[in-house]
Amino acid sequence: METNYLETRLAAVASAIADKTRTSMLCALMDGRAWTATELSVMANVAPSTASSHLAKLMEQSLIACVQQGRHRYYRLYSSQIAGALEGLMGLAGLDSASLRSKTPDNLRYARTCYDHMAGEVAVAIHDSLFQLNWLEGEGYELTNHGREQLLGLGVTIDIGSSRRRRACGCLDWSERREHLGGQLGKALLYTCEQKGWVKRDLVSRELHISDTGKRRLGKVFGVVF
């Protein structure tokens, strides 16, 4: 009974994703922001009435959520777990590293958001540095005492409420085919970089713009070469 239920649910979720219009909407929501149905219809190049039916399908499978703000309704990904699953599917869709890198726009491959944390070349370099600098250790991404001190010194808030989300974990980067930092720590690090003016989100895409100050500071702290 349970097996049949899981198979049915998996098939339903796969069916909801297996549509180019809905895929375009999900990819647009991967920047972590909430968008209106009209905005998503433009991104997916369909009529607003058509977009509504597609959004309803995605909501049925708990892939997205609707947030009411005054007279407006905004749509966002249902959770960080959904974002992680989509990022993984993007990696599978790339087929092989060479073809994927050649088709990925340079600006997105360089630095972008993966829902609520950083992705791309810069994020992968930061991920690797966290281990090389002994801020994180082990396959479980355990935070060392040294790492905790350094992150707090940067103003990164590590303990975020009572969230059941993992504190730190690897997230497979679909363009680099290596891990970047996810979890609560990945989210907190992006937030801190934004607050300090080191990075800034693009208004209409997942691209992250790194300021000159950000390049200097990230280079000094994590040894990232720009």
TrEMBL record:
Protein name: Winged helix-turn-helix transcriptional regulator
Domain HTH arsR-type: 2-97
Superkingdom, natural source: Bacteria
InterPro entries given in the database record: ArsR-like_HTH, HTH_ArsR_DNA-bd_dom, HTH_Metal-responsive_Reg
